[in-house]
User: Fold this.
Amino acid sequence: MTRSSRAVLFDLDGTLVNTFHLYMECFRRTLEPRFNRRLSDAEILSLNPHAEQRLLLEIIPETDFTSYFERFLTYYATLHEGLFGGPYDGVLDMLQTLRAQDYLLGVVSGKSRDAWRITATRMEAEGFEDLFEVVLTDDDVQAPKPSPEGLLAALDALEVLPPQAVFIGDSLLDHQAAQAAGIPFGAALWSREEDARVTFAQPVGPDHDGPTFRRPADVVGWVVRG
Assistant:
């Protein structure tokens, strides 16, 4: 890789794959002992669950974090088969087309590394193996989005400068992180075509002042034209 390389970075949950119902049920079951009941989706969303480890650290005593996180991962693994929504329609074709045109691809996610490994196994079975040159998770950064730390670390690993990259995400946190990193941003709206609730953080809306995409295929045209 050289500094003349071009890269496309992606958020993961709500952008490439639909994990909304999986996460809701995992949080609901994990947090039940803390609240002595199962929380509703609305109550879970009010806790701002864009990074599972950080959510637990905010509401669980630090001494109990490990046991709660292990509980979460157990549910995430056992419920994955039934509740993982899989990649959004057109995402695999989008990624393969970009790779064929020599773009470096990366993921920058608030997901934990352990949860990523579980999801990555399923994605590889569906043809996503070896598509990403770099995957940055919440375990790899000190500060989550909207900090640009993860995006800049991914670009550094790829040896790509911010103007030579774009970032595709579905939330305002993604947009803010891209702005802070100096990376052009495109809003993935296709998740809301399937389910209005699939984003965990405040979504980027159709009034977003940058490019918006309702189909993954539209990303390819924008990237290539850019």
Observations:
- The domain at 7-18+86-225 is CATH 3.40.50.1000 (Rossmann fold).
- The mean pLDDT is 91.
- The chain has two domains: 7-18+86-225, 20-83.
